């Protein structure tokens, strides 16, 4: 299945299935000895979606190490653990700095609004496609989960006028905001990516912060890795061609784009993020380009 401008999905199809994939990785990562993250909801959320492959993964009836020969699937778990921890730390640091308003763009099955120790008075907006955000909210209720903040959901396509939808949900552009885009950019057309950062910048009061990640080659090497992951999973009956979900085309380097728009930007390659969290990045030719993905934090003064 290829992309079209107005395509939509649920958590079991197309781009939505990638949110389930990431949640499965978080469920597995949360169980590791010396775990980097603790996401007590990921497993239940994956079960609620009901994709057999991911349910078996979190049930432990399909060993992640058996899912392919090259260790790609196992590394996915570690990559997602490091990525999740990076964004967790970003929000916790912003909260400590006094930022009370947060926006999670493309929230998928992210459970931060339920599991992070938000300060009193914190508001967290979650934006994603309607079927994704509604199913996640229903599943969390079913799991008996309660937000640890004032959680507001915004059901919207991020290629559309999401700023208007965000404002309608009570977003206050006069307040400093912590923004995240995690696992999103390759699923947006290049021009929508630029528009996203334009809109974020326009709605950011001084003191706002932003965390994101991207690959410096625009995602070409991501496609290669994603094809390998798709093949491995196809062998186990889960058929989604991940590279078909990415938008091709030249992209602006996010760090440069943000700098031009007045943000003070810090980047760290994934290999450095692994070291920061005491994890080894495995030797693997196929995955070597993944070392170069950049974790970005930016602030607006
Ligand atoms: C790889 S998942 C990441 C989810 C979440 N950020 C996480 O890390 O667990 C990609 C998410 O982006 C969302 N997404 C991608 N394109 C979108 C769009 N145009 N509008 C709204 N959501 C979108 C998908 O629905 C999905 O939840």
UniProtKB/TrEMBL annotation:
Fetch the SUPFAM superfamilies from UniProt: S-adenosyl-L-methionine-dependent methyltransferases
**Keyword Chaperone set for record:** no
Q: What class of enzyme is it?
A: transferase
Gene Ontology process terms (BP): methylation
Q: Which UniProt keywords apply?
A: Methyltransferase, S-adenosyl-L-methionine, Transferase
EC number, UniProt record: 2.1.1.-
Q: Does the keyword Transferase apply?
A: yes
Tell me which domain of life the UniProt entry assigns to the organism this sequence originates from. Bacteria
Which PANTHER family does UniProt cross-reference here?
A: S-ADENOSYL-L-METHIONINE-DEPENDENT METHYLTRANSFERASE YKTD-RELATED, S-ADENOSYL-L-METHIONINE-DEPENDENT METHYLTRANSFERASES SUPERFAMILY PROTEIN
Q: Which family does it belong to?
A: Belongs to the UPF0677 family.
What's the protein name?
A: S-adenosyl-L-methionine-dependent methyltransferase
């Amino acid at each position: 299945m290829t992309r079209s401008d107005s395509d939509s999905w649920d958590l079991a199809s197309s781009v939505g299935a990638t949110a389930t994939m990431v949640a499965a990785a978080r469920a597995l990562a949360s169980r590791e000895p010396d775990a980097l993250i603790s996401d007590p909801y990921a497993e239940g959320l994956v079960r609620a979606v009901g994709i057999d492959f991911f349910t078996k993964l979190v049930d432990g009836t399909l060993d992640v190490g058996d899912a392919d020969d090259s260790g790609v699937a196992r590394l996915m778990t570690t990559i997602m653990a490091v990525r999740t921890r990076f964004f967790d730390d970003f929000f916790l640091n912003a909260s400590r700095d006094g930022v009370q308003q947060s926006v999670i763009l493309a929230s998928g099955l992210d459970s931060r609004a339920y599991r992070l120790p938000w300060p009193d008075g914190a508001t967290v907006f979650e934006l994603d496609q309607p079927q994704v955000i509604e199913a996640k909210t229903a599943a969390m209720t079913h799991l008996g989960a309660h937000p640890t903040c004032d959680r507001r959901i915004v059901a919207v396509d991020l290629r559309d006028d999401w700023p208007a939808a965000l404002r309608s949900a009570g977003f206050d552009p006069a307040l400093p905001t912590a923004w995240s885009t995690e696992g999103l950019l390759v699923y947006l057309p290049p021009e929508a990516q630029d528009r996203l950062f334009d809109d974020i910048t326009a709605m950011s009061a001084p003191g706002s912060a932003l965390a994101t990640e991207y690959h410096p080659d625009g995602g070409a090497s991501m496609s290669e890795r994603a094809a390998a992951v798709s093949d491995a999973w196809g062998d186990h009956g889960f058929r989604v061609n991940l590279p078909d979900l990415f938008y091709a085309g030249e992209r602006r380097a996010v760090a440069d784009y943000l700098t031009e728009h007045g943000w003070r930007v810090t980047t760290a390659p994934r290999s450095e993020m692994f070291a920061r969290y005491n994890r080894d990045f495995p030797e693997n030719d196929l995955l070597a380009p993944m070392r170069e993905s950049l974790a970005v934090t930016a602030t607006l003064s």
